[in-house]
Amino acid sequence: MEIQSSIFGISSFGIHNPKTPFFPSKATPLSAPKQVLFKTHFSLSSNLSFTKQTLKVSASVAKVECEIGTINIFEDGLKRKIRKKNLAVFVSGGGSNFKSLHEATVNGFIHGDISVLVTNKPDCGGAEFARDKGIPVISFPKLKDGSGLSSHVLVTALRSYKVDFILLAGFLKLLPAELIKAYPRSILNIHPSLLPAFGGKGYYGMKVHEAVIASGARYSGPTIHYVDEEYDRGRILAQRIVPVLANDTAEELAGRVLHEEHKLYQEVVAALCEDRIIWREDGVPLIQCKENPNLYM
């Protein structure tokens, strides 16, 4: 809606984005307004009236005046701080999704930092990229030559980096139960098909796209899901549809799916770091829309 884009579009106001977002909550008016810098989108069911210099919003939960550069809050406790999250990314290869996530943390789209990279192939492209960016690299699992960390030591190491969430980005090893128990509902994976189709042990990389085309499926696309103790069986969090074209090769389909992977993973991790993941009573995770918490992605 055009009115909403004017209200919530940061470029419309030329507003500087600080590091701490806020959201409206129920409270009583104060005698003097608070001034708070505008960070992120929020939604109010409101009647809107415009003047040349000020947008006034009258709502049941608060009286708010949006001015250029600031928001004057007339209610107590409106500002809710969201702590910047620490992320660990696990890779086994070139790490294109890792690089995409790193870019999104640097430009502020994701309210988090990649604190450490974990890999079972210390010489892979993802590990080299991490070292170039000054991100610590951990080798896992422990190998016969004595290199790498055991499961127990890995958990200890991740806690030393104060990791909040673990993001798998092309990591080809099954995670140990010890790690999954240490980070409940905090480990995500991205898979290049619409799970539960074409998932499980042996379905990775180009093998997935070859199987999709051979099956005659008309649609594919990335799935982001929570990780449990089986390959690709955790609760699905988000998916995006990519059409399979009549004369597709596996490489062509893979390229289009990967393009959507990058965008979807950024959006989901942004929601994760902004505490916008909620769990339905039946155990299904949902992502609240940033513009309207009553809607879901």
Question: What do these coordinates show?
Answer:
This protein is globular. The chain has 2 domains: 2-73, no CATH class; 85-287, Formyl transferase, N-terminal domain (Rossmann fold). 27% of the residues lie in helices and 23% in strands. It has 8 helices and 16 strands. The strands form 4 sheets. The chain has a 7-stranded mixed sheet, covered by helices on one side. The chain has a 5-stranded antiparallel sheet with strand order 1-5-4-3-2, with no helix packed on it. A two-stranded antiparallel ribbon has the order 11-14. Mean pLDDT is 80; it is low at 1-79. 29% of the residues are buried. By secondary structure, it is an alpha/beta fold.
Describe this structure in a few short sentences:
With 297 residues, this protein is an alpha/beta fold. The chain has eight helices and 16 strands. 27% of the residues lie in helices and 23% in strands.
Based on the model shown, name its key terms.
16 strands; Phosphoribosylglycinamide formyltransferase, chloroplastic; five-stranded antiparallel sheet; alpha/beta; single chain; disordered N terminus; GART_AS; Rossmann fold; seven-stranded mixed sheet; GART; 23% strand; 297 residues
